[in-house]
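Late entry, written up from scratch paper. The run itself happened at the end of the previous shift, but nothing got recorded in the book at the time, so transcribing now.
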Amino acid sequence: MVQRFDVGSRLSEMAVHNGTVYLAGQVAADDTQDIAGQARQVLAQVEALLARAGTSKSRIVMCQIFLADLADFAAMNAVWDTWVVPGHTPPRATVQARLARPEWKIEVVVTAAL
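Output as recorded:
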């Protein structure tokens, strides 16, 4: 069985299947903030979605980070380093990508275990 959360006409924010939680790409609600502000927002959204599914950031098995500008890599990592659980840092990929809206500086996709 697949359980979907916040189902829309185009996508669901999250799906749970066979003990695995899959999040849609998370972007900042307030896209006027700098990379640090947007990163904090996005990671808070990730954490909240994982909690709704009954899991936590310590159970992330893969994270993909898309940055509009790799010049933001260090500032994003500073936020990441304070957020991630020491000893439970997941595999991660960070790439530069042209995001769907020019105001977005970061998009994060997470897969986690229940």
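Residues 35-53 form the longest helix (19 residues).
(Scratch paper discarded after transcription.)
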